[in-house]
């Protein structure tokens, strides 16, 4: 079979597009994050070592295989990059504009989004590959293809889901204070919220319950620890 680059324009138009998968994964506490770094959303990226976009960074992913589902491909390529299993993975959107792969074979990308909490990295192997790194979404490097658009779409999806508190649950550990829950919510929506209003809404939602445990070592009134109700915990 002739390679893509040996085909003329007419032949390329008759050639069906290939299908690939890319995953935008979010974490608030990726491994080896500098301690003095402000809290925010981080994503793992892989630096390309060959054209097109050699030297630019891209989302974890790759072409689909005939014997693997899209979700299997998304999970395997993400874990290969991060060395850790996400606690949540969902299909995000399809990206298939003609312009997105003008310099190479026409490719349609099925994008996924994923979430990690800090404990998801506890048993992960250290990332020794210099071409793999986590970046804050506020300071992204040069990105390949249309991966900036994919990341932006993933952030929008995350923000739309912010009213559903189980999205925050996938960033938090099992037990948390209301202040910790509010901090995660503020990172997701990228704005400050009124603590009193947030507390009232969270407690009246029916989605969190007290654990009966309070924060140790507090100077003043110790904060209560909460957990998500079972109906939300099952959505991991």
TrEMBL record:
<feature type="domain" description="NrtR DNA-binding winged helix">
    <location>
        <begin position="171"/>
        <end position="228"/>
    </location>
</feature>
<protein>
    <submittedName>
        <fullName>ADP-ribose pyrophosphatase YjhB, NUDIX family</fullName>
    </submittedName>
</protein>
<dbReference type="InterPro" id="IPR036388">
    <property type="entry name" value="WH-like_DNA-bd_sf"/>
</dbReference>
<dbReference type="InterPro" id="IPR054105">
    <property type="entry name" value="WHD_NrtR"/>
</dbReference>
<dbReference type="InterPro" id="IPR036390">
    <property type="entry name" value="WH_DNA-bd_sf"/>
</dbReference>
<dbReference type="InterPro" id="IPR015797">
    <property type="entry name" value="NUDIX_hydrolase-like_dom_sf"/>
</dbReference>
<dbReference type="Pfam" id="PF21906">
    <property type="entry name" value="WHD_NrtR"/>
</dbReference>
């Amino acid at each position: 079979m002739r390679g893509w680059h040996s085909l003329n324009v007419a032949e390329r138009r008759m050639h069906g597009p290939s299908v690939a998968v890319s995953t935008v994964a979010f974490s608030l506490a990726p491994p080896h994050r500098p301690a003095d770094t402000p809290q925010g959303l981080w994503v793992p990226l892989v630096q390309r070592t060959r054209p097109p976009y050699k030297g630019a960074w891209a989302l974890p992913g790759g072409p689909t295989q005939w014997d693997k589902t899209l979700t299997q491909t998304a999970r395997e390529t993400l874990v290969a990059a991060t060395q850790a299993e996400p606690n949540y993975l969902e299909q995000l959107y399809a990206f298939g504009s003609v312009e997105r792969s003008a310099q190479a074979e026409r490719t349609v990308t099925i994008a996924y989004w994923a979430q990690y909490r800090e404990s998801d990295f506890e048993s992960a192997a250290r990332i020794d590959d210099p071409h793999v790194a986590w970046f804050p979404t506020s300071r992204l490097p040069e990105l390949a293809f249309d991966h900036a658009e994919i990341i932006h779409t993933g952030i929008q999806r995350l923000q739309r889901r912010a009213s559903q508190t189980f999205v925050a649950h996938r960033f938090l550990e099992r037990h948390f204070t209301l202040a910790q829950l509010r901090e995660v919510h503020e990172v997701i929506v990228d704005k400050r919220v009124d603590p009193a209003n947030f507390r009232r809404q969270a407690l009246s939602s029916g989605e969190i319950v007290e654990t009966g445990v309070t924060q140790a070592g507090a100077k003043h009134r110790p904060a209560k620890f909460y957990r998500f109700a079972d109906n939300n915990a099952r959505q991991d």
